[in-house]
Amino acid sequence: MAPPPKLIDDVTVEVLLCLPPAEPEHLFRAALVCKPWLRVLCDPDFRRRYRAFHGAPPLLGLIPRRQAFDGYPAPRFASTTSMPDFPFPGAFDGHRARPLDCRHGRVLVQVWHERRRKLEYLVWDPITGDRHDLPAPDFDWVIYIAAVFCASDGCDHLDCHGGPFSVAFVAMATDLRKDIVKASAYSSETGAWSAPISLGDYAQHIRNALYERLRYGPFAQGRRGPVIGDQVYFALRGGNEIINSLGFAHIECCSLYLWSMKVDSQGVAEWVQRRVIKVETLVPTVDPSQGPFVVGSAEGLGVIFISAYAGLFTLDLKSEQMRKVDEPGDYFNVLPYLSFYTPDRGRLLSLARADDL
């Protein structure tokens, strides 16, 4: 039998462009078909076209943040694809590590060194393995929230690996027995934190305004805040809601309520309810007394993470399809890892550059 005809190069490229990025296994299997396909998949021009063709980076995995009832649970990367989990750096052995944020291909982790009694931070790229250690901000704080994000000018955030990054740190601090909000930013280019700025007694103002209704301290609940443009948004209270791209999600009576910010012609903004989804028909109910609640979202993908008695689920807002991605647990927040994962990493790239197989 005669061998099948070779695909025209241009046709091969168009076919490979259509491989779904949400399942990197397809790309890696295609790279092993033959040397020409491997070279195409590792070519920088093809990778740029591939990312532009598919747009938003896919969801590769989750980093669950569980309630710390008995100390901080060991950090874990839970893959949502057929690819194996990315192991956290081994330097965490013997230390208390807690993931704080995940964005633009990077993970921000708080690390407490038991022997040195010192708090530090780590920015880690699971795909490349790169890691960057940074010190804690130089001011006293009680509770805080932090975010990591790409700092490259004009970046489309489709391939941020290896570029500069920043870390935003917002905390309720103590100064002369007065609660104040302080903020500082770390730059990987300068290797230093900016001088902290103070928002005066704003934290106490919020505390006073919410005390009668909430009965607890309102600030810095530690949930992930979205980056919109060049601004980071943080929520100042807890609960089973999220804020993402100026949207709001909340589960009540087993229904998911979706709200968005609407600005009229006069510049006045208001929250508008735009959708209600009956979650009870999508999430398996094991114990009716323990209803589901929102623990996070994936920016740009229209995916919300819901914790229920039966486990951790993703809800696609477009299709309303629910998928179980992890076992039941005391989830506080879920950090989504979004990135393109192509065969140009590691040994396959060296094979593509070789003259022979």
Structure explained in plain terms:
- The strands form 6 sheets. Strands 7, 8, 9, 10 and 11 form a 5-stranded antiparallel sheet that branches. A 4-stranded antiparallel sheet has the order 3-4-5-6, with no helix packed on it.
- About 2% of the residues have low confidence.
- Helix content is 15%, strand content 38%.
- Helix 3 crosses helix 6.
- Strand 14 and strand 15 form a beta hairpin.
- With 357 residues, it is of the alpha+beta class.
- It comes from Urochloa decumbens.
- This is F-box domain-containing protein.
- InterPro entries: F-box-like_dom_sf.
What's a concise summary of this model?
The chain has 357 residues and is an alpha+beta fold. Helix content is 15%, strand content 38%. The chain is built from 6 helices and 22 strands.
